[in-house]
Amino acid sequence: MMEDKLAFICGGIASQARRKLRDGGCFGLPPNRGRVRPRTATVVAVFDFLKQGQKAVEESGQSIVDYVKKRAEEDIAKVNAFNDGLQKSRERLAQDLSAILGSITTDAELEEALENIEEVLITSDLGMDTVDIVMDDLRAEATKERLRTEEDIKATLKGTLVRVLNEKVTSTFARLERV
């Protein structure tokens, strides 16, 4: 009797398994019901996916190139505008200094010219530290009576400005390298 029950149960399980396999389902998966997908469709889909990915990379690469070109053009325009502004400042500084230095004949005129030079340098946005150093050098040279002509003043002014500005640039780069 026990064997009959066991055969009935096993037979029932076996028949269910045969039915599932026949319908295409297996171990909890839904049955296929006659819809068979060819394996080539899956392979083609993978290649389509790869092609789409490649196309997206090419498009993003092109957009990066376009961005870099646009940014470079903007930067060049900014640098050109900055250089134009510096050129105007240099010309204005040269004109103002020429007007001041045009007619120095006495020590009183030299002292007044030095005060006017200081004003011009301040309005030229060189910075107060730079102007103070330049004016100290000019006054020291005037005291030593080395500044007698317009050319002497221009040469001393130019040499001092170049020296001070080079020192500032060098110290700025040194600070940036430490960061």
TrEMBL record:
GO terms for biological process: SRP-dependent cotranslational protein targeting to membrane. InterPro entries: Signal_recog_particl_SRP54_hlx, SRP/SRP_N, SRP54_N_sf. Pfam families: SRP54_N (PF02881). One of its GO terms (molecular function) is GTP binding. Residues 82-165 form the Signal recognition particle SRP54 helical bundle domain. This is Signal recognition particle SRP54 helical bundle domain-containing protein.
